[in-house]
Design goal:
By secondary structure, the chain is mostly beta strands. It has 3 helices and 15 strands. Helices cover 11% and strands 31% of the residues. Strands 1, 2, 3, 4, 5, 6, 7, 9, 12, 13 and 15 form an 11-stranded mixed beta sheet that branches. The chain has a two-stranded antiparallel sheet with strand order 8-14. The longest helix is centred in the middle third of the chain and has 10 residues.
Length: 240
């Protein structure tokens, strides 16, 4: 049979010593540490980075042009370096796959016939990171692209259009060709092959191009740059 504990001893045990005023027990502080950041390689020079519910794509690139008119912000290496600020040794199809893993669903490329329809898709925030004199610089990609007429920074976000896959007519057994690999990875002129494009009319004809490199803001040729592609959450909800 158990022994009953006198009420007075129960009180003393709860307060410490007899006559001591009980104090309210303080709640333990919540763990406010940020979720762990994880990085998984999707392809050569392409990674998916996750932190809790946040997902973004990282692409290793380099500066290949600092001045002149533009067709692209980013092209594939050995394709259109004379018209793009950045180039990367990548398979654009793997950047596409990484964006899907980041919960972005491709929209549609520009249409010219029978009437013009602008590119569509979820907006992608594009950020550039590079080192300058030992300091890490992080800027919106729009600061490297400006309107040739107004001299103002590019005012639009890019959209994930998704390019297209084309079978080899000479060998149907070959894997389809991902069209953006001709060079049209992140464009500032509308192209039917673009993986990412601007959601406004921007001619691909040389004499009508409206965007140029903002030379004074772009570091030296061959500077290594990490391109960060972050789908905007509001658009992801719309695309589901």
């Amino acid at each position: 049979m158990g022994v009953a504990i006198p009420a007075v001893l129960t009180l003393v045990g709860a307060t410490g010593c007899e006559g001591e005023v009980p104090t309210k027990q303080q709640a333990k502080p919540k763990d406010t540490a940020a979720p762990e950041t994880k990085k998984a390689q999707v392809g050569k020079n392409v990674w998916l980075e996750t932190q809790g519910d946040k997902r973004r794509v990282l692409v290793n690139a380099y500066v290949c042009l600092r001045e002149g008119q533009l067709e692209q912000l980013l092209c594939r290496r050995h394709t259109k370096e004379h018209e793009a600020i950045l180039a990367a040794d990548v398979d654009a199809k793997e950047i596409h796959a990484a964006l899907i893993l980041a919960r972005a669903e491709p929209g549609s490329v520009v249409q010219y016939q029978p009437t013009y329809k602008p590119p569509t898709g979820p907006r992608i925030k594009v950020t550039l990171q590079y080192e300058d004199a030992g300091k890490l610089i992080t800027i919106p990609a729009q600061q490297w692209v400006r309107n040739a007429g107004t001299k103002k920074d590019l005012e639009y976000d890019w959209v994930f259009t998704g390019s297209g896959l084309y079978p080899d007519p000479l060998d149907p057994k070959k894997p389809p060709f991902y069209a953006a690999n001709v060079g049209d990875v992140i464009c500032v002129s509308n192209f039917e092959d673009a993986m990412m494009d601007l959601p406004v009319k921007s001619s691909k004809d040389w004499e009508e191009r409206i965007y140029e490199a903002h030379t004074q803001r772009i570091p030296a040729l061959e500077t290594k740059v990490t391109i960060i592609l972050e789908p905007l959450a509001a658009d992801l909800k719309k695309s589901k």
